[in-house]
Automatic annotation (TrEMBL), chain A:
Keywords: Amino-acid transport, ATP-binding, Nucleotide-binding, Transport
Gene Ontology process terms (BP): L-amino acid transport
SUPFAM superfamilies per record: P-loop containing nucleoside triphosphate hydrolases
Lineage summary: Bacteria, Bacillati, Actinomycetota, Actinomycetes, Propionibacteriales
Source organism per UniProt: Nocardioides flavescens
Family annotation (PANTHER family): HIGH-AFFINITY BRANCHED-CHAIN AMINO ACID TRANSPORT ATP-BINDING PROTEIN LIVF
Protein name listed in UniProt: ATP-binding cassette domain-containing protein
UniProtKB/TrEMBL annotation, chain B:
Family named by the database record: Belongs to the binding-protein-dependent transport system permease family. LivHM subfamily.
Stored InterPro entries: ABC_transp_permease, BCAA_transport_permease
A Pfam family that the UniProt record links to this protein: BPD_transp_2
GO cellular component: plasma membrane
One BP term from GO: amino acid transport
UniProt keyword terms in alphabetical order: Amino-acid transport, Cell membrane, Membrane, Transmembrane, Transmembrane helix, Transport
Ranges annotated as spanning the membrane: 6-28, 60-82, 94-113, 139-161, 190-212, 218-237, 244-262, 268-285
Entry's Gene Ontology molecular function annotations: transmembrane transporter activity
Membrane topology label: Multi-pass membrane protein
Record protein name field: Branched-chain amino acid ABC transporter permease
Compartment(s): Cell membrane
Length: 237, 299
């Protein structure tokens, strides 16, 4: 069986600035993978290339099929959905419209409505604010909305770029419990890029360590957590 | 009082036309953050087609079908094959392509149909008694028709934007193209459709305005002033707001009618000067216009 998503020698950057230098990465269906790395290691660039927002060199395969130059909507159609850093909610649209927009690729209107209700049950605070314009939500609520919206396309892989950024610890805790639940219930694979390494490692089964655009170490999460150097630098204990 | 009413009516009529052109610009700007300076020339071209068909015995109303359809196709094709390829480079390139389209389309119309003015039929015929007496002023049926057309266009556009799946996608792209694409929206397709819709609105506006506003005939330079007034109306309203385009267009129309009417000591026509002043004041004091949400940084 082929991997859900596979990157081989992935390089990307912005104009003359090369950020990623030949990254190899594999995500199996239903797996939770974490990418650790310092600021500027290329984590966000990696996520943006995987989501189709950035052109890349190298090979990207979904379900064993090479995708080539790809747009974000095509990645969504292949089941890969990104929760971008800084949330990227549609601030001028209502909460409900944000969720409906997340499902534009779907044709099953009743299924879409079921999913909207489902995420309103998962995130009661979004339900309370369903008619409110997204730009008026708090940071935590916007992050919930961004996650729910990305899930509206029923992705098989959810890319989460720093979903804890700028949020209160108690809210971050809740978000992680939610995405862990989504992974367990729906079998949605997760690729997490996180500053909050301890929290991310807690739900991950596999870890990649990114340094200046290269994967310098990778392995099962348990063995990673036992490595002293990793613990000191990324987990802080 | 009656002279005031007369000026108010003529201002509303012209303002409705400005508002329609502003709407075309707004629909484009909302999608791709570009001001389509060739919008007026697209409309001029389709109006020539409409006129040419009337010369072949077509009913004027019937000619609107191919004219508006052509407006959609021309603008959509221009976006896809001329604007989008250069958009990746920078905004200046887009502006230059739009200017090239502006002169190119005008030249093409002149080459095909000649530079002499054409008599373009009125959609609503006007006779000696085709008006309602209103407090001493004459409210001509064609004025009513122009204002009603605006109401119709705004109604249809609002319906599309707020009640359809396409409208949801258009609003999403207007808010943030990148986030919209991450939702699975084919942003390029929305650009194309938006340009096409703008082409339809522009073509309709031109067909309505040519016989109503001076010089009253179809000529090559005819749409230039209209584009300026439409741009001012759109700027005043905020470039990405439907409501803003309507308010901007009507206030510009009425404002100019009053200034030209009561300020005759300024000399013949100071409309363009006023328009320029409005542009400078809006850009200087309130770049987002009255109802705009997006900043003007990319213009």
């Amino acid at each position: 069986m082929s991997a859900l998503l596979e990157a081989r020698g992935l390089s990307a950057g912005y104009g003359q600035a090369h950020v990623l230098h030949g990254v190899d990465l594999t995500i199996e269906p239903g797996q939770v993978v974490v990418v650790l790395g310092a600021n500027g290691a290329g984590k966000t660039t990696l996520m943006r290339s995987l989501a189709g927002l950035l052109p890349y060199d190298g090979e990207l395969r979904v379900d064993g099929e090479t995708v080539g130059a790809v747009r974000p909507d095509q990645m969504v159609a292949r089941g890969v959905s990104l929760v971008p850093q800084g949330r990227g909610t549609l601030t001028a649209l209502s909460v409900t419209d944000n969720l409906r927009t997340g499902a534009v690729g779907r044709r099953d209107a009743s299924g879409v409505q079921e999913d909207i209700d489902r995420w309103f049950t998962t995130f009661p605070r979004l339900a309370e604010r369903r008619h409110q314009v997204a730009g008026t939500l708090s940071g935590g609520e916007q992050q919930m909305l961004a996650i729910a919206r990305a899930l509206m396309s029923r992705p098989r892989l959810l890319l989460c770029d720093e979903i804890s950024l700028g949020l209160a610890p108690v809210i971050v805790q809740g978000l992680f419990e939610t995405i862990r639940g989504i992974n367990e219930e729906m079998g949605t694979a997760l690729l997490l890029v996180e500053q909050n390494a301890a929290l991310a490692m807690g739900i991950a089964s596999y870890v990649y360590l990114l340094e200046v655009g290269r994967v310098v170490q990778s392995g099962a999460a348990e063995s990673f957590a036992q490595s002293d150097s990793i613990r000191r630098v990324y987990l802080g204990y | 009082m009656d002279i005031f009413l007369t000026r108010l009516i003529s201002g509303m009529t012209a303002g409705s036309v400005y508002a329609m052109i502003a709407l075309a610009l707004v629909v484009v700007f909302r999608s791709s953050a570009t001001i389509n300076f060739a919008q007026g020339e697209f409309a001029l071209f389709t109006t020539y087609v409409s006129w040419w068909l009337t010369q072949h015995g077509w009913n004027i109303w019937l000619t609107l079908v191919p004219a508006l359809g052509l407006g959609f196709v021309m603008c959509a094709v221009a976006e896809r094959f001329l604007i989008r390829p250069v958009r990746k480079r920078d905004e200046t390139a887009v502006l230059i392509v739009a200017l090239a389209l502006f002169t190119g389309l005008n030249g093409l119309a002149g080459w095909i149909w000649g530079s002499d003015d054409k008599v373009y039929p009125r959609l609503v015929p006007i006779g000696d008694d085709s008006f309602l007496a209103l407090g001493g002023a004459r409210l001509y049926y064609d004025s009513i028709f122009v204002v009603l057309s605006l109401v119709l266009v705004v109604g249809a556009l609002s319906l599309v934007l707020n009640k359809t799946g396409l409208g949801l996608q258009m609003r999403a792209v207007a808010t943030n193209p990148e986030s919209a694409s991450l939702c699975g929206i084919k942003v390029g397709r929305i650009f194309m459709i938006s340009w096409g819709l703008a082409g339809v609105i522009g073509s309709l506006a031109a067909a309505i305005l040519v016989p109503v506003l001076p010089p009253g005939q179809l000529g090559l330079p005819g749409m230039f002033h209209m584009l300026i007034f439409g741009t001012v109306a759109a700027l005043l309203g905020g470039l990405d707001s439907v409501k803003g385009a309507v308010v901007g267009g009507l206030s510009l129309g009425v404002g100019l009618a009053m200034i030209n009417g009561y300020g005759s000591f300024f000399g013949g026509s100071i409309s363009l000067t006023v328009a320029l002043v409005v542009i400078v004041v809006v850009l200087g004091l309130k770049p987002n216009g009255l109802f705009g949400s997006r900043r003007l940084e990319r213009v």
